[in-house]
Amino acid sequence: MIELTGNTAAERFAQLALDLHDSAGTEQTVDAVVDFALQTLGCSHAGVALIVNGGRLQIPAATDPVVAEIYAFQICGGEGPLSESMREHSTVLVRDTTTDDRWPDWAGKVRELGVCSVLDVPLTTSDGTVGVLGLYSAQPDAFGPDEEAIAHILARHASIAVASARREDHLAQAVDARKLVGQAMGILMERYNLDGDRAFAVLRRYSQNTNTKLRDVAQQLIQTRRLPG
């Protein structure tokens, strides 16, 4: 673990903030977060689970397949610290998986994977919890008050960065969708001698009738030169 004290801490978090600002999209953002966790917190593994559409959990960043296995167990319905952190919007610390008896099935699973201590910290914004930062160590009692304090600061940076990256991703998708719809309208206007309003109405009707997103209808028309059946 790299010791973070005084100016060193300020400098490293300042650099992290710059790295997160320069990240291109949500996945690169969370990759920077877990890399920082490995360098500064002395954990064996780190990962981020994010809430996506419909409340599902996605694992966009994990430093080792072990993390993905631990997350997958809980995503599939098993109880554990990730589930509790997400549900209660709180930090959950497991000092030693050999003695912690809160989630016996989960503890047995992670022990088999060589994990002895776990720290799950929620990623929260003004809109609520958007995910969880998970830290894992092969050593028992690896996360003390100092590590927990640093993890909270890191989670705060990550929460803001993830929210910002998601907004940018959504804006980029919206711009892309507008471009596709515009191209599709141009095809209809040229082929059927329609004006812009009627061309858009055709796309919207096909979207509604086939229960297909307008963007997908436009993309299919561009690719196949045919509207959905």
Automatic annotation (TrEMBL):
Pfam families: ANTAR, GAF_2. InterPro entries: ANTAR, CheY-like_superfamily, GAF, GAF-like_dom_sf, GAF_ANTAR, WH-like_DNA-bd_sf. Residues 161-222 form the ANTAR domain. GO terms for molecular function: kinase activity; RNA binding. Signal peptide: none annotated. Keywords: Kinase, Transcription, Transcription regulation, Transferase. This is GAF and ANTAR domain-containing protein. It comes from Kribbella sp. HUAS MG21.
